Amino acid sequence: MTQTDKVLYTGKTHTTGGRDGASRSSDGRLDVKLSSPGTSGAGTNPEQLFAAGWSACFEGAIGLAARKMKVAVPADAAIDAEVDLCLVDGAYFLQARLTVSLPGLEHDVAQALVEAAHQTCPYSKATRGNVDVVINLV
């Protein structure tokens, strides 16, 4: 494990039943039923949770980059995240697309924010070299 100066936060969950079970955070704020993708189950799935977490973190990283560049993030900024569960030759893997909307910003400024966010977002760092990622700026 990497040496760290300070742990800012630790998310803790307890999961039972795997993809067809349930997951609950230690503080009770997250309490979800899980279902395998493509089934009629009532719950969400790990890929949806990963997409939600990554897009929220990425938008936060855009905000950090914007503050450093002294640029205001548009109030209607949005990120659509897609995380694919794939199978090739019996091996599972993920691939992802982030579609970023920063309306009202010059394209060059928006692109600089997206590139900076992709360098600082912890999810982007964790997936780099492990998950094929396409980031589209619209």
Automatic annotation (TrEMBL):
Coiled coil feature spans: none
InterPro entries from the UniProt entry: KH_dom-like_a/b (IPR015946), OHR (IPR019953), OsmC/Ohr_fam (IPR003718), OsmC/Ohrsf (IPR036102)
Cited SUPFAM superfamilies: OsmC-like
Region (Disordered): 1-45
Biased composition regions of type Polar residues, renumbered to the chain: 36-45
Gene3D superfamilies noted in UniProt: 2.20.25.10, 3.30.300.20
Similarity comment: Belongs to the OsmC/Ohr family.
Annotated NCBIfam families: organ_hyd_perox
The protein's name in its UniProt record: Organic hydroperoxide resistance protein
Lineage: Bacteria, Pseudomonadati, Pseudomonadota, Alphaproteobacteria, Hyphomicrobiales
